[in-house]
Hints:
Layout: E1 10-15, E2 20-24, E3 29-32, E4 38-42, H1 50-56, H2 59-67, E5 74-80, E6 83-88, E7 92-96, E8 102-103, H3 108-116
Antiparallel strand pairs: 1-2, 2-3, 3-4, 4-5, 5-6, 6-7, 7-8
Amino acid sequence: MSDYFPARAYTTAELSPESCIIRVKNGPSVTFNPAGKWTSVVGYGATLPQIFLFDQLPPDLYEYIQGLDAVDKVYSVVVDSGQYSVIMLDTSVVYDGATGAITQPSNFVKAVSRTLR
Length: 117
């Protein structure tokens, strides 16, 4: 993750058998699974770097977000069992890695924004 958030100090690390959460000073938190793969990146009010999205999201999902003109408006990405949930400024999308389907659930942003407060 240092490639995407260079020259920033890491302020907090929480370890458990299920995950490791790293908080970047004045930046996002990144959660890793036991295999060392990231499972969520939460910007805490800051947008995520475009290069992170380009490198880490499936190409179809990245192109979809790009088509929404929202690459610079992504605040959070969560991946669980091949399903990517992306929270943007005005909308959210869910990408199913198994089928390639992309949906925009109407209540997802409201539910997640309440959770992150």
